[in-house]
Amino acid sequence: MLRIKMKQLFSIMSFFVFVVLFSTCSAPKHEVKEYNKGLHIVPLPLQLTEKEGVFGLNANTKIIIQENDEIKPVVTQFNQRMTSALGQALAITSDTPSKNYIQFSLDDTCDQGGEGYCLSVTPDGVTIKSKSPRGLFYGMQTLLQLLPAEVESKSKITSVDWDIPCVEISDEPRFKWRGMHLDVCRHFLPVDFIKKQLDVMAMYKLNTFHWHLTEDQGWRIEIKKYPKLTEIGSIRIDEGKEYGGYYTQEEIKEVVAYAAERFIDVVPEIELPGHSLAALTGYPHLSCEGGPFKVRNVWGVEPDIYCAGNEETFEFLEDVIDEVTQLFPYEYFHIGGDEAPKKRWETCKRCQGRIKSEGLADEHELQSYFIKRAEAMLLKRNKKLIGWDEILEGGLAPSAAVMSWRGEKGGIEAAEQGHDVVMTPGNWVYLDHYQGSSKVEPVAIGGYTTLEESYGYEPVPKELEAEKAKHILGTQGNVWTEYMYTPEIAEYRIYPRIIALAEVGWTAKDKKNFDGFLTRMDNQFVRLDHHGVNYHIPLPEGPSNNVAFLDSISLTFTTTRPIDMVYTIDGSEPDESSAAYIGPLSFSDNTTLKIRSVLSSGKMSKVRTINVKKETLLAAQAVENVASGINLKLKEGEYYSVASLGSTDDWESRTLTDPKEGAKLFDYKEPSAAVLSGYVEIPDDGVYEFSTDLDQFFIGDRKLIDNDGEVKRFSRNDASIALQKGLHPIKAVFLNNVYGGWPHIWSGLRISYRKQGAEKFESIPLENFKH
């Protein structure tokens, strides 16, 4: 009996162990992160059906491929990702096991076009089919997005289960042209940065990289026949120092090959006839006036352009185009064509002679003549010309395509004429615009384009009938780098808006939904973290960084899209466990408020520190015999910081009473420094917030605003102070220089204020200042 009982006990224990082991095998080994729950594919596929179950990818999973060299590069990149995240490569075979496999195959039965694919995930295995290697590559990108976000890690991850939800996907892009433009002339960006962007572009199925390589501010591509283009034309003087950089032809080839591996076509841009000052600095005889020139260190449009009447200009461009086209295999070649002032052509004897000899009506037709000659050079080399919408002026070259950037009008006109068009209107796709308040974001060129606005762009204008709409090739995000002083700032502008535009270019119009996109982006942000991308996180907006009050004050914060905010009032840095902002914050004592935004992944924005200070009214001063105007001390010289002014007294003194007189005193080409002093009349008792782009601004002995060492544009250092009605002494320092490409005088000498509670600032007129 004892033996029987022992056998029974053993059976019971064996069954219990089996149950425990079975439960352990079938249950997830790790908790699934919130951002990994559900499907997060970006861009959203054309057709997606969710099925029951998951496919568990593991170290024993095999990759099945046909004996086809075209497929191998796709599989190699997939296996590189597996090697990084799983810690080992997956075995590759041509045999088909019954389960635990991922199969890549070229298959005409997947009727989704040349870039489309069919993806099937079952508990036994994964199949990706396409008519082309490019389609397989995009299917592979979708497969990676079905895996946890940690698959993008550059090192082995042991904290997740590599489960892929069972789905059936049939997918293809809406548009042929899905691109990103990058200006490397205003600010040079190294090869490693370019490759990084190509990696991320590939993740989101972007297929065109528009590389803006020449400008007034720098020539960035080696041309062996014309070495001065880079020896001289790649270097400018910024804040008294040399700034430059260019790509050798070997580096260009390296980038083009890297892009090709990711099925990204590279379109070079060589600007003509305008934006050519860097070239003219090295070869001034190609201009109308002969120089000498300096590479432009100021943003904006340069009047000196290539001389259209000089035959040597076209010989030069023929040589340049010949070298460049050999480096870029893609069919399109961008010639710019934008912002070409005709001022020099109007007075140039050779250009006027060309107009007469060719029977042209005016300088606009001369530009058309110029563009058509460039097109002929490209056609000889089997390239298609594409340019900004100004190439429409004076008549469009027959085979040219247009990028419509000044709104959609140019694109509509070109499509109506039967020309292909890439829609790139600034309101939606210019990624140098602000995506948050200019009062809290790093300085930008201006404009305001939120993530939602970029996502909501529709590339096919409603004015076009279906027959003409077929000429819309697609769209791209344009990245102009005037105010992108570092690679980190460039990424801060680019992401996540370029990902929104990736969905605009790929996903069917009726399937787009911004709220759904935001939900899916929670997962994508983690992927970007693994690539080290410095993407934009909306900052808390509202109050300035220095807030005064009399009795108590309530501060309200907003963000440009729904996102949590956390804050502290004890001086510590806020983290995920800090108090959540759920409404206005009230203060009746001096407080240092620190607030930041936080994503669902835990990634946080920069901290905004708000100094909240209780004040009494600063007493006005009794001053007799005052008159309107302000005192000004002026001295010549290049000064890039207030400290560089030193303590010398060699100032020229005068009094300004006419606003126009102040503007006439300063020209950025003749640098100088000025100190303005006097009194400002405050109309009523109260707290006043001041704003200025001047370097420093004092009220009494208090330095209220300090912009020293920054680009003086779109004041980001506003501050408030409690003032009694009457006259208050003020002082302001103004350094008339070019800082970060922005001539300070272009901001003017304005000082603005608003009484606490008022919506808008008002510029204080000169007559309200006293001396």
Question: Could you explain the architecture of this structure?
Answer:
The protein has 771 residues and is α/β, with parallel strands linked by helices. The strands form nine sheets. An eight-stranded parallel beta barrel has the order 8-9-14-15-16-17-18-19, surrounded by six helices. A seven-stranded mixed β-sheet has the order 1-7-5-6-4-2-3, covered by helices on one side. Strands 27, 28, 29, 31, 32, 34 and 39 form a seven-stranded antiparallel β-sheet that branches. α4 (191-203) packs parallel to α6 (249-261) and α8 runs parallel beside α11. The radius of gyration is 31 Å and the shape is globular. Its EC number is 3.2.1.52. Residues 634-759 form the PA14 domain.
Keyword list:
single chain; 771 residues; alpha/beta; 8-stranded parallel barrel; 7-stranded mixed sheet; 39 strands; 26% strand; globular; disordered N terminus
Entry summary:
The protein is an alpha/beta fold.
Layout of SSEs?
Blueprint: H1 2-26, E1 47-56, E2 62-65, H2 72-86, E3 91-93, E4 101-106, E5 117-121, E6 125-130, H3 133-146, E7 163-171, E8 177-183, H4 191-203, E9 208-212, E10 214-215, E11 218-219, H5 228-231, E12 235-238, E13 241-244, H6 249-261, E14 265-272, H7 277-282, H8 311-325, E15 332-336, H9 343-347, H10 349-357, H11 363-379, E16 384-388, E17 401-404, H12 409-416, E18 421-423, H13 426-429, H14 451-455, H15 466-469, E19 472-479, H16 487-494, H17 497-506, H18 514-530, E20 546-549, E21 553-555, E22 564-568, E23 579-580, E24 585-587, E25 591-598, E26 608-614, E27 630-636, E28 652-656, H19 659-664, E29 672-682, E30 686-692, E31 696-699, E32 702-706, E33 719-723, E34 726-736, E35 738-739, E36 742-743, E37 751-755, E38 762-763, E39 769-770
Parallel strand pairs: 2-3, 2-4, 4-6, 8-9, 8-19, 9-14, 14-15, 15-16, 16-17, 17-18, 18-19, 20-26
Antiparallel strand pairs: 1-7, 5-6, 5-7, 10-11, 12-13, 21-24, 22-23, 22-25, 25-26, 27-28, 27-29, 29-34, 29-39, 30-33, 30-37, 31-32, 31-34, 35-36, 37-38
Enzyme class: hydrolase
EC number: 3.2.1.52
InterPro entries: Beta_hexosaminidase_sua/sub, GH, GH29D-like_dom, Glyco_hydro_20_cat, Hex-like_dom2, HEX_bac_N, PA14_dom
